[in-house]
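Quick start: load a record and inspect it. Here is Non-homologous end-joining DNA ligase:
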Amino acid sequence: MTPITEVEGRRLALSNLDKVIHPATGTTKGEILHYYATVADVLLPHLRGRPLSFLRYPDGPDGQVFFTKNPPPGTPDWVSTVPVPRTDDPGARQVMVEDLPSLMWAANLVVEFHTPQWLADTPAVADRLVFDLDPGAPATVVDCCRVALWLRERLAADGLDAYAKTSGAKGLHLYAAVEPMPSDEVSAYAKHLAQEAEAELPKLVVHRMAKALRPGKVFVDHSQNAAAKTTAAPYTLRAREQPAVSAPVTWEEVEACGSPGQLVFLLGDMAARVQRYGDLLAPLYSKSAEDSSGARSGRRRSQEG
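Running the structure step on this input writes:
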């Protein structure tokens, strides 16, 4: 029998809680749900206001892994969805995770959470910039840290504060909040900075995606600033053998990184990190996201009443 639980007044069917999802550590689905409940306070602000895409891995990373933007079959009517501009589907809608019940419903599907750099109320108008620093072997996250430090200084020269998190895979993600502007303008700026990084650090950086160019270098992926692209959200688990988290890190940790293992964080590490640091990415919160989320919640409560 599938357990039924109540979360903030919403009834949820939570299935297969003893199923092992991450084989290297024996991490079960129940432990994954507990993790998301534990980090909800720091995760939810990064999801609110943004249409979500899911990378689903219900049978673990070695099973079927697939990316979906459409609301999954059986999505409860109390889970928010919003229309999104998509050339392949003019009537497309995507899920919004705005509260703990929605988060636990989505986590029960076993997903990575991915967000665009824009809010649902202002499609294709970015309020933040992102770089995905991806090392090509034998380069590692240690090399990504060197590139991140250079980009931090370059962004600072333009008046932008940079914040870092692990990708939860091999590299780093670098964010900066920007004044809302069309995504194509942010994309052009990010590409320009990636080209500058390659010119300044030619033995370390490549800005083009071609795999033949990448061995031993860090690919500064600027493409995730495009309106149609998404990035793994802060605090999401990744579909990896171990339950690795895309974890915010301090600049002191970036500066001190001397081996890849120093910037690997698993779900069991996060409660202590959140207690120690709070949310290191809190400055990225968009007031407009909070305001629009509140307006949508008010509309839903009015409709339900």
